Amino acid sequence: MSSMEKSELFKAVGKRIKELREAKGLTQVDLAGKMEGEFDTTNVSRIEAGRTNPTLYNLYRIAVALEVDLEELVRVF
Q1: Burial class (CB in 10 A: 0-12, 13-18, 19+), 60
Q2: Domain at 25, CATH number
Q3: By residue range, what is the domain housing residue 13?
Q4: Residue 1: inside a domain, yes or no?
Q5: How many angstroms separate the CA atoms of 17 and 53, rounded?
Q6: What is the dihedral of CA 27, 65, 57, 14, to 10 degrees?
Q7: Domain named HTH cro/C1-type: which ranges (predicted)?
Q8: CB 11: neighbour CB atoms within 10 A?
Q9: Residue 30 is assigned to a structural domain of this protein
Q10: How far apart are CA 37 and CA 47, in angstroms?
Q11: How confident is the model over 8-45, as pLDDT tens digits?
């Protein structure tokens, strides 16, 4: 596994989330709506763009909403 800068990691995870979301035919609004608890669409946008560091719990919530394992969600290598 190669070393990755923090910003590169955020972008790679965000890109992976976007790929999985689009493969399921979901919009960012759909994804936010499927997540347990309240989650704003702008947060989905920031995560997918790699502009924020999502918490482990939020990554878990996204994985559940996308019906994938957390491991699959963060697989960037």
Answers
A1: middle
A2: 1.10.260.40
A3: 6-73
A4: no
A5: 13
A6: -40
A7: 17-73
A8: 17
A9: yes
A10: 17
A11: 999 999 999 999 999 999 999 999 999 988 889 999 99
